[in-house]
Design goal:
Blueprint (H helix, E strand, L loop, with lengths): L21 E6 L1 H4 L10 H14 L5 E6 L3 H14 L10 H14 L4 E6 L17 E6 L12 E6 L4 H11 L4 H4 L2 H7 L4 H14 L3 H18 L6 H16 L5 H9 L9 H4 L2 H8 L8 H13 L3 E3 L8 E3 L1 H10 L2 H19 L6 H18 L10 H12 L3 H19 L4 H16 L3 H19 L4 H16 L3 H19 L4 H17 L2 H18 L5 H16 L3 H19 L4 H16 L3 H19 L4 H16 L3 H18 L5 H21 L9 H14 L2 H4 L2
Parallel strand pairs: 1-4, 1-5, 2-3, 3-4
Antiparallel strand pairs: 6-7
Helix pairs in contact: 3-4, 3-17, 5-7, 5-8, 7-9, 8-10, 9-10, 10-14, 11-13, 11-14, 11-16, 13-16, 16-17, 16-18, 17-18, 18-19, 19-20, 20-21, 21-22, 22-23, 22-24, 23-24, 24-25, 24-26, 25-26, 26-27, 26-28, 27-28, 28-29, 29-30, 30-31, 30-32, 31-32, 31-33, 32-33
Length: about 725
């Protein structure tokens, strides 16, 4: 079915989009009220057509479509656009930073671009994320012009319903009608108010029933009278009538009865795209087949969706696993209003269960995760507190956790703040669900760098758990550890140490000196001393804790091995290199025996021993260990992994300390090449390697008695250095 026709009389052409400005597609004033604020004038369809026109005519180097349902959606789209441009994101770079770099690219590029922002309903969605640049156009499709009032150079283009000519063009392009069947088409279009949504329903009905326009008009007139009584407060009897005819048609197509239940489920989710995995989940299939005890087959799901598409109620995009099924908000609203309260709750519960099952797939692309978040947000909007009143539904928690997992720190904080407020109000401040959500808020604040706020959240959580569970409870200890860690991150070492000291005293008093909890408290306090730079206290505390662990848990227990590894760092920090090397050797042997030579803990132990050798000014002992680490990193993680690049720099430092400049400089150069290729020229690791290479070259020249602190690049200094070493100073550059 044709879903769009040129709006030459009521629309806007691509040529009409002025350069260097923002164009708003908004409902015409005389139609917005009649459609109850749910659109229906074809804004998104027109914006899509203009975007395709721009792409197909190659009028822009970049055409980006953003479903701007929230900040997380905008950030995710920008980060993906940066990836598509070949500009990143860097390994380990968060999407928020990638989005900032994309916006910077828009500002700097001289290539023409078009960004379409669809479905903006809240100014927060584009706060600090507005696209701008001398080479670009911005097109916004929104029912809320005030949401983008902060943008510069905005001009509005009102879009109403079709003109009579456009309505007939759409109808005849969608339905293959002969001359006799077309009779009465103008009268029908007029009765439908030239509404694109109503005409879509009518065209689908005509296509599937082979009625003519007059016959459909008769059905419509009768149905509109019923619709006016069924929907006294809502949504307009015209679209309600065409919707009900199409809904009835879809439900009568075989297998009968599935389409209406599928539409009920779809009405609870995001209109701008539902992942197929949601609608084909076991929970969704079970709902479709109720009251039968066995879920419907997946083939039945496909047929039901196809029937809804044939009836003009949904659009199916098989090429998009993230946004497979799209539906107009008016269709959703009418469907929800039709459902009895009990059935509405069953559909909402099934939708939530289907989302939870869809989230359980760990292999979730960012675009699919965003679509799942959009669906979860819409479900909560439609159902209010239904999914939280008896405890947080897993889908609601998974949506927030996906923000954490995807590195969307700012949106995650906002999400968990709202969830904390709601659960506290509905469930109580000390309900386990409220407590868990508050912990997630603290973690989100910590991840976003809002340490003062994280500390406030963690302090309150610790006080509540201490009061309710006691200081020795595992949950209380976990809360204390989180707070201690955050104190250190915020530079509040004294607060962290004080907390750890109180925890040790409390554990000894409650559980005794040999209890595993007390031994763990020893390790935590020692780590706090070590992080604060109090090396002697750290050593003494580690040794007391280690003695207890070896006595109670055994010398080969993982916690005992970890304590010995921590002692290596404490001895190094205090300058007691002999002990550091001894414990480093033993820890490495323990790790190799317990976990194998390739385990990350083993490689960390090897790096700690190498550092002890280097700090003890024993480069000949350090170099072979660093060489082994580089070889292991290359084999296990790849030559261009950040850990491998940093390990190569450590090896270069060891060569430098041994004055093996002919080996040090090439290692730095290799690290720089790998970093630039894998991470980009401006990544923090790349910049650090570049600075270290320059410093290493200058150190070598200083040894040679030559000042080369010039304007040369790091690579030029390195290359020139190696050349002179080979020609003039072979002994100095020898291995």
């Amino acid at each position: 079915m044709v879903s769009w026709v040129a709006r030459q009389e009521t629309g806007l052409s691509f040529a009409g989009l002025a350069e260097k400005t923002t164009t708003l597609l908004v409902p015409a004033r005389d139609t917005a009220r009649g459609l109850d604020g749910l659109g229906g004038t074809g804004k998104t369809s027109l914006a899509s057509a203009l975007a395709y026109e721009c792409r197909d005519s190659q009028a822009a180097h970049l055409v980006l479509w953003v479903t701007a349902t929230g900040q997380d959606a905008v950030i995710t789209s920008y980060a993906q656009a940066l990836r598509d441009l070949g500009e990143g994101p860097y390994p380990g770079e968060g999407p928020e930073h990638a989005a900032d770099r994309f916006l910077d690219w828009l500002k700097r590029t001289d290539r023409p671009w078009l960004v379409v922002l669809d479905e903006i309903a809240d100014p927060v969605a584009v706060d600090g994320l507005w696209p701008a640049g001398p080479s670009g156009r911005v097109l916004v499709a929104t029912q809320y012009p005030d949401a983008v009032a902060a943008a510069h150079s905005v001009r509005a283009a009102e879009l109403g319903v079709f003109s009579p000519r456009e309505a007939l063009t759409y109808l005849f392009a969608s339905v293959n009608l002969d001359a006799s069947q077309r009779a009465g088409a103008l009268e029908l279009a007029t009765e439908l108010g030239f509404s694109p949504v109503a005409l879509r329903h009518a065209a689908a009905f005509l296509t599937n029933t082979e009625l003519d326009c007059r016959q459909y008009h008769s059905h419509f007139t009768e149905r509109r009278q019923l619709a006016a009584r069924a929907f006294p407060d809502g949504l307009g009897s015209t679209v309600a009538a065409t919707w009900s005819l199409s809904w009835e048609l879809a439900d009568q197509l075989p297998p009968q009865g599935l389409a209406s239940r599928a539409l009920a489920l779809i009405s609870m989710l995001a209109p701008h795209g539902i992942p197929y995995r949601v609608l084909s989940s076991e929970a969704a299939r079970a709902y479709l087949s109720e009251p039968e005890p066995f879920p419907a087959e997946e083939t039945h799901v496909r047929v039901a969706l196809s029937n809804l598409s044939r009836a003009g109620l949904v659009t199916i995009n098989d090429r998009s696993p993230a946004r497979t099924v799209l539906v107009h908000e008016m269709v959703q609203a009418l469907t929800r209003q039709y459902l009895p309260a009990a059935e509405s709750q069953r559909a909402a519960r099934a939708a939530a269960d289907a989302l939870a099952q869809a989230w359980s797939d760990r292999d979730t692309a960012p675009s699919t995760a965003q679509a799942l978040r959009d669906c979860t947000a819409k479900l909560r909007e439609f159902t209010g507190t239904f999914l939280l009143s008896s405890g947080c539904h897993p889908a609601v928690l998974q949506a927030g956790q996906s923000l954490d997992a995807d590195g969307l720190a700012g949106p995650a904080v906002a999400y968990w703040e709202a969830m904390t407020s709601v659960t506290k109000q509905l469930l109580g401040a000390r309900d386990p669900q409220t407590v868990a959500v508050r912990d997630l808020l603290g973690a989100a604040c910590e991840a976003s760098g809002r340490l003062d706020k994280a500390i406030a959240v963690y302090e309150a959580a610790l006080a509540d758990r201490d009061h309710a569970l006691g200081s020795g409870h595992p949950d209380t200890r976990a809360a204390r550890d989180r707070l201690t860690r955050t104190y250190f991150a915020a530079g509040r070492a004294n607060d962290a140490i004080s907390l750890a000291e109180r925890a040790l005293v409390s554990s000894e008093a409650v559980a005794g000196p040999n209890h595993p909890d007390t031994l763990t408290a020893h390790a935590n306090l020692a780590s706090a001393y070590l992080d604060a730079g109090w090396h002697d206290k750290a050593i003494a505390t580690f040794r007391r804790g280690l003695a207890g662990m070896e006595r109670v848990l055994g010398p080969n227990h993982p916690e005992a091995i970890a304590a010995r590894g921590s002692l290596v760092d404490a001895y190094r920090g205090s300058g007691r290199f002999k002990e550091a090397i001894a414990f480093g050797k033993r820890t490495l042997a323990d790790r190799e025996r317990a976990s194998g030579p390739d385990h990350p803990d083993t490689i960390t132990a090897r790096a700690s021993l190498a550092s002890a050798y280097r700090d003890a000014k024993k480069p000949k002992d350090a170099i072979p260990v660093y060489q082994r680490i580089v070889a292991d990193r290359e084999r296990i993680q790849s030559p261009e992994h950040p850990d491998t690049i940093l390990a190569r720099c450590d090896l270069a430092v060891a060569y430098l300390s041994a004055r093996k400049f002919g080996l040090s400089i090439p290692q730095y150069e290799r690290a720089l090449d790998d970093a630039e290729r894998a991470l980009g020229h401006d990544h923090p690791i790349t910049r650090s390697v570049r600075e270290d290479l320059n410093e290493a070259a200058n150190t070598a020249w200083s040894v040679l008695g030559i000042d080369l602190r010039s304007q040369r690049s790091a690579k030029e200094n390195g290359a020139l250095h190696r050349t002179l070493l080979a020609i003039r100073y072979p002994a100095l550059g020898a291995a």
